[in-house]
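OP here, attaching both records as promised.
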Amino acid sequence: MKTLGTHNYYVYILTNKTKTVLYTGVNNDLKNRLYWHKNPEAVEKSFTSRYKCFYLIYFEHFGDIETAINREKQIKGWTRQKKENLIKEFNPDWKFLNEEIE
């Protein structure tokens, strides 16, 4: 997914199997980050492992980290309804997109 000379940053939203919990994050290697959300260290008590938020339902790509972090903060400040509207525009059926990330 990376092109030589470019930077890749992703703002993403994960959910649990029943789609009742939403987690927003930012990272520069989405595929690797999804792996670590699903396979945390045994002692890790992160939000995503506690609530089993392993399923990617939304992401945006950015070329610089400041823009990505600002977008993550913006989305984190939104109401659940506003986040759901964003997800529905991008992924109307709330399909789990983990396998589509290369």
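Record two, same layout:
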Amino acid sequence: MTLALETTDLKVRLRLTDDWFTVCDLSALLPGRGVAALLPDGRQAAVFADRTGRLYAIDNRDPFTGAAVLSRGLTGTHQGRPFVASPLLKQRFDLESGQCLDDEAVRVTAYEVKAV
């Protein structure tokens, strides 16, 4: 038997400077898995939903390698902070702030995100 994904009209939106930008349908996000979204300026965002339905978005580019791979990383929590670990070198990035948990000098952009 094949189960159909839940359908919804809700869209995931990111705040970019002074406006909101729609990146995907909420139904495209599965807990523990990221989605890469192309932004108008050519950058990419990695968008995540956790098991409680909370949404997160950070820059998709791994600052240690330059590869756009953070959306493919493993998610988890460390001391109550949600993170994604880069699939390449395994550095962890806080999904709320973008701060690298393994190197305090490194940070990626974190976006305000909502479903409407």
